[in-house]
Each structure stands twice: as structure tokens, then as C-alpha cells.
Amino acid sequence: MSSSGTPSSESPPPTAIAQDPAEPTGPPASPSTVIANHKRKDTSKVIVRFRAIGNAPIMKQNVFKITASNKFMAVIQFLRKELNYQHSDPLRVLAGTG
């Protein structure tokens, strides 16, 4: 606004747009590079803790490390094997953080 109370025609200076650091700033990668990166195994691990609730059997060991790229179905299959559950036996698994 100008001193006379009318809006001024000056626009505010343009602000710089922050770029997302996850976005690549260089040229796009070639398809063969993208495929090679996708096929590479992820070696990072996550810790999985199992806790028996209700009348579930208690496991001798309840803390395991698994590869982070595993799907949740792999955790269920592992748990069935450890508990000697058949595929037809009901198994409920709750996932949470903490």
C-alpha cells in the first residue's frame, strides 16, 4: 500500500521455491541404471518383536532381525513355521510401532 492508502502497483519480490532434496537435479537416469538399482538387494535390517496375546503360544525367542525389503507375508509365513501352525489354523497378526 502506498502512503495515500491505495494499493501500490509494485509486486512483492519473487520467492525462491525450495526444491525437494529427494528429486534428482541432474539428467534422468537411463532405464538400464534404474533396473540395476531395482534388482540390487537391500541389506538394511529391521527388528521385529513378537508378543503373545491371549492364549497364543509363547515363543522362546521373540526378537528377530529381517531384511527391510521383505513383505509382511514373509513375517506371517515365518511365524507360522515357528509356531508349527498349519495353513488352515487361524493366525492373527497385529502390526504397530513402538
UniProtKB/TrEMBL annotation:
It holds the Pfam family APG12. Ubiquitin-like protein involved in cytoplasm to vacuole transport (Cvt), autophagy vesicles formation, mitophagy, and nucleophagy. This is Ubiquitin-like protein ATG12. Its main location: membrane. InterPro entries: Atg12 (IPR007242), Ubiquitin-like_domsf (IPR029071). GO terms for biological process: autophagosome assembly; autophagosome maturation; autophagy of mitochondrion; glycophagy; piecemeal microautophagy of the nucleus; protein transport. Forms a conjugate with ATG5. Transmembrane segments: none annotated. GO terms for molecular function: Atg8-family ligase activity. Belongs to the ATG12 family. Keywords: Autophagy, Isopeptide bond, Membrane, Protein transport, Transport, Ubl conjugation pathway. GO terms for cellular component: Atg12-Atg5-Atg16 complex; autophagosome membrane; phagophore assembly site membrane. Residues 1-40 are annotated as: Disordered. It is a peripheral membrane protein.
